[in-house]
Every structure is written in C-alpha cells, then in structure tokens.
Amino acid sequence: MRSILKSVAAVAVLAGMTLSAAVPTFTQAQIDSGEALRQLGKIAYDTAMARAAKATTGCTKDKIKIRKEWRNMTMTDRKGFQEAIQCLMSKPARYKNIAGAKTAWDDYGVLHYYQTNFVHDNALFLPWHRHYNWVLEEDLKTTCGYTGIFPYWEWGLDCGKMDKSPVFDGTEYSLGGNGEFVKGHRAAIGGAKPGSGGGCVKTGPFANRTVNLGPTPGIGGDSVALKYNPRCLKRDLNDDVCSKMASLRNTTDLILASSTIAVFQAGSQGEGVTGTNNKNFGMGVHVGGHYAISGDPGSDFHFSALEPGFYLHHGNLDRLHFIWQNLDWEKRKDAISGTGTMYNSPPSPNSKLTDNMGFEPLHRNITIAAAMDTVGGTPLCYVYEPW
After folding, report:
1. Of residues 330, 368, 336, the one with CA closest to residue 50
2. 353 by DSSP, 3-state: which?
3. Residues in domain Tyrosinase copper-binding (predicted)?
C-alpha cells in the first residue's frame, strides 16, 4: 500500500463508484493512530443523526440510544452492564430439554450454536449479529433492569497492552481479567505467537464463573455440544493477534478499501478477497477480535457467545458496518450479498431483504431489512459515538 492513502472518494473512483466529497484525505500516520477512524466515525454519526432528525415517528432524534466505547462509559454503566449479565446468568433458561442450558445467559450460546452455519460467511453475517446484540440489549433491560449504555470495544486501542485494557484489566469495572498463565499452551491462530493466559479467569467480576455448554465437538453433534459440561471461564489475551489482525490500521483499511458489501463482509471475515488497490485483509478483523480474547469459550466458533466480551467485540464490528454504510448511505443502506448458508454449502438461494432471520425463543424473528438501518426504528434506534 502507498505510504499516503488517497481520499475515500478517490479510492472509490478507482472502483467505479462515487462517495461523498465530505470524506477527507488521510495520511498513513492518521490511519495508524486512529485519527482517520475517529473522523470516519464522526461522519457516520452525523449522517445517521441527520436522518433521525427528519423522522416524525419511530426512531426520532430524542429517542436514539448512543452506544459508546467501554472506556467512555461511566463507572455506573460499566457496573450496571456487568451486573445485568450476571443477572442473566442467574435466571432460568428459555430453551427447554437442552441439558447444558441452565441459565438465560446459556440461551445465547444455544442460539448462536444453532445459527452458526447460517450466519457466518454469508449474507446474514452482519445483519444477524447486529440484531443479536440488540436482542441482548433488550434482554438486559426487560429481564434485568439495565437501562444504561450498550458498549463496544475498539480492539485497536488495546493492541500491545491487552492486559491493561479497561475491558480486561481485571479491575472492578472491567469484564474480568486474563486467564491464569498456562505454561506451554498455544491457542493462537494464523502463525501468531501464543497468548499470555490460557487458564481460568481469577480476577474481576467474572472470576470463577462457570461455562455450561461446549466446547464444540468434532464428533457427536448436538448430543455432545449441548450436554451439561461445567468448567471455568478461560481467557488467553493475545497482543500479537490484536496487532496483526485487529489494529486501527486493519479496521480503517477495511472501511476505505471495501467498495462493495461483498468485499466488506468477506474482508472482515478473512475470506481471501482483496479490496481497492489490491488491499489484502489477511485473516480479518472478525477473527482478530475473537482471538485477541481467545480462551474457552472465546475462541469457540459455535459457543463464543458465552464469553461476555463477545458482545463488545461484535459491537465494534457492527460499528464498522455502521460507518461503512453511512459514508454512502443511499447506495449502501440495503446492501447485502450472498446466500443463507456458510460458503453457500449446501447451495442455497441468494438472500433477499424480505428473508426472515431466526431469534426464537429469545426474541421474535425479523427480516434482514429490519436490521439494515440502526436508526430505522423497526426496531433499531441507536448510533455509535466515536471514542
């Protein structure tokens, strides 16, 4: 890549499309420091708020929820978010006749397990996980009384100092600390160095928590994966993965070099696509964020949703999608690409905006279209504040 990137508009011209002239030119230093991402986030925020300001019903400007980066939340909201998750961990499961589903928190692991092959590496990846986070937000409110900010975690702010992250530093206002160090372990991916933990989480509000489901088995299917298998929550924080796959440069490049939703969603998941100017997205920021946390169940493809950090991680991915859409809203507001099965295996029809996405029994099913606009009001009504 050139040392100085042209503006997003110039990049778009090379790809045969036009973006807003309001998007500035960024130097490599601005990209690497996060200043470019902050500016792009502000443009997206303003664009979405301007749409809401015109609304007379539904998601009006006075009703919008502002999602914030964890470090920008008040201590009261950080504490409230933790306690609401712990509340779900104490409520009975809504899935019945599943041996491993003991709590309302386990429900999210079961739903993600069942939907995994239909909401990854396909057209539903971004809208399904967007609505999934919203379902949790509503559940924390209606079941456990939490009315504070729903957070995201900007991975790139913590690469190189994961154990100092306010999300994972093990203090009272974090989501708990790293796992205890296990000598000789190796749970990294893509040739990255091993993480710095690997064992049970012993510090912070989620210390000594029990994981009831998983891990995903190679053989045995549902009868093994969904059985009751209590064990400690483990983490393996990994600076090398974060720096190589989920840095501020990685996230900004994904936005700047993705001229279509097909490139954006595939690039975020490391599917081997190249972006504008032959940009290589490597293993993708989605993989990077997961394996920066790693551990059990954090790096479990099916049951990673049982890791509390999962939702802050996917909040950040949703934020990138939010930014990408709002940089050229009229052309990108309904952009989806692909079928309804992972890697189109087995082959399935191309997805349509009118297709339903499954969330029962946690919430009613909705169409893809209903999850395309975060200020659409049917039911989404939120924006992402730059950190």
Report:
1. 330
2. coil
3. 103-326
Altogether, the residues listed in the chain come to a count of 387
CB 86 within 8 A of CB 104: no
Q: Which residues contact 178 (CB under 8 A, 6 or more apart)?
A: 162, 163, 168, 170, 196, 197, 201, 235, 236, 237
Confidence band, pLDDT 50/70/90 cuts, at residue 217 = confident
Q: Is the dihedral of CA 8, 314, 325, 262 positive or negative?
A: positive
pLDDT tens-digit map of 300-312 = 999 999 999 999 9
What letters, b where the CB count within 10 A reaches 16 and e where it falls short, cover 309-325? Answer: bbbbbbbbbbbbbbbbb
Beta bridge partner(s), residue 151: 68
Residues 6+ apart with CB under 8 A from 142: none
Cα–Cα distances in Å, from 202 out to 112, 169, 334? 26, 11, 44
Is the pLDDT assigned to residue 196 strictly greater than 90? Answer: yes
Exposure of 345 by Cβ count < 10 A (0-12 exposed, 13-18 middle, 19+ buried)? exposed
Phi, psi angles (nearest 5°) of residue 182: -115, 110
Q: What is the pLDDT of residues 122-166, one digit of tens each?
A: 999 999 999 999 999 999 999 999 999 999 999 999 999 999 999
Reported as a single tens digit per residue, the pLDDT across 90-121 is: 999 999 999 999 999 999 999 999 999 999 99
For residue 182, name the pLDDT band (cuts at 50, 70, 90).
Answer: very high
What is the rounded distance in angstroms from the CA atom of residue 296 to the CA atom of residue 215?
8
CA distance 77 to 250: 29
387 within 8 A of 167, measured Cβ to Cβ:
no
> Which domains can be identified in the chain, with CATH numbers?
8-384 (1.10.1280.10)
The one-character DSSP state at 70 is: G
| pTM attached to this predicted model | 0.93
Residue whose tokens read 């920021």: 285
114 contact partners, CB below 8 Å, separation of at least 6: 358
Whether a cis peptide bond, with omega within 30° of 0, leads into 230 is no
Number of neighbours of residue 331 by Cβ within 10 angstroms: 13
